[in-house]
Amino acid sequence: MRLAVDRRPGNLYLEGMETVPITPERKAQLDEYAERHGQDTAAALDALLADALEWEKQDYREAVEGIRRGYEDMKAGRTQSMEEFFEDLRVEHGFPR
Question: pTM (2 decimals)?
Fold first, then answer.
């Protein structure tokens, strides 16, 4: 089944559409992706962008949470010296002294 974007006049999807230049190489990759997935190129691009942006948003949230936890650990004194850290790393991965 081939999915397609509704391109009829007045379609809200197209009313706000802007042209974004992409390299010929990226366009070829997008066309191949769309074909492999049985999609119209515009629909494939929209789906890929939605997935990438959702992943980025989640990655950002996780990074902020990790920084917050690290800051809380530091404030609470749950830290170790660089010497201790490197020794733990050396032991964990079997690095020589």
Answer: 0.64
